[in-house]
Amino acid sequence: MRSGIFSQGTRTTRWAATAAAMAMTGLLAGCGSGDGGSDGGTLTAYVYGDDAVKVQQAAVDSFNKTSDVKIKLVPVPGTDYVNKLRSAMGSPNAPDIFYNWGAGSIKPYVDAGQVADLTSAVNDDATLKDGFIPSIMTAGGLDGKIYGVPMRGMQPVMLFYNKSLFAQHKLEPPTTWEDLQKAITTFKDAGITPFALGGAEKWPELMWMEYLLDRIGGPEVFRKIQDGDTDGWGDPAVLRTAQTVKELIDDGAFGKNFNSVDYASGAAPTLLSKGKAAMHLMGSWEYSTQLGKAPEFAEKDLGWTTFPTVAGGVGDAANIVGNPTNYWSVNSRTKHKDVAIKFLKTMASETYAQALVDNGDVPTTSNAASMLTGSPNPQFATDQYQMVEKAPSFTLSWDQALESQYATPLLTEISKLFAGKTSPEQFVEAMKAAK
């Protein structure tokens, strides 16, 4: 599940989980502890079953040494996670604590009254309130309420670039749209694709829409959509975002064949490392991808920066998008909510943050900055952490922030827009009509 030293699995396995959510299987028997969770002195905690589970298992083992009520960690295979969680939440064997992606991923459970509102618990407890980067805590919530506590590393989307190509052509990483357009023209004239893009898959294209809408209209536009107001798709900033995408495509920013390039096989990252593309907008796991596939390039020539501003846009240049982190949520029916919250507080501890760092992750805790010098790549980890720490807003990836009945048509319509099969205006109308 991992490539290099930083987690690549969350983006990929998140997709498998989303796909699994489209189907239902039989009830997951025997994993929960009954009656909304607790039976006797045990709390059941579902976690996504990948190689990072060892960090959560160590935290559970440590907690159980001093707690009368024990926690039983249940790793669920990644491709089955969402489906089995949904099955279990509708049964008497629902977990007391469960791993999730926040926002849209938990909305059905919140609407059904199955998730504990942690807003007061967090605001009334200094460890929880001050223990995490605020934008991370906010990103996992819904309607201004807190339903989860961060429990894994951060994965913002960053603009990666080939330092040698920029130096060769006497360019600096773009900070404004004018800078970006200059870079596009310069690299095109040199026969170099300005941006690698794995258009054969839909999610890399989504990142462009997310950042452009943020820079043009600010995070409030998508937040309105995320909160259930589909009329938000009619905001002028959405149309301008789609129009800007079309302009980039028409200008050759992604080359001519990006629709046949994928990410999973390494095709898009290879364009960057081989100098055939100058830049790549991708999640922070791009570093580990490059380190695994082109270690010399990753160590010497891979640069990273933030997404540029857009002329006339109102979004803060420090805003970021991507996967803020994963969260622990608590079943509203658990018999031992106080114990569950006590366990969640350990996620803010220095010991837990250090375990994440040792595992190659960048923690979302407010105490993590000083630990990153021991990271496998201290500079990258520190830059990533500071980017998130300073962000006024961290928008969760749209396909995860929205429920599947909206996320699925969204990905389809974005793919059609990038492929030139639909116009910006048609994209807007299609999303307004999505139900």
From TrEMBL:
Keywords: Signal
Keyword Signal attached: yes
Signal peptide span: 1-29
SUPFAM superfamilies, A to Z: Periplasmic binding protein-like II
Gene3D superfamilies (UniProt xref): Periplasmic binding protein-like II
Superkingdom of source: Bacteria
InterPro entries found in the cross-reference section: Bact_solute-bd_prot1, SBP
Stored PANTHER family: ARABINOSE-BINDING PROTEIN-RELATED, BLR3389 PROTEIN
Protein name: Extracellular solute-binding protein
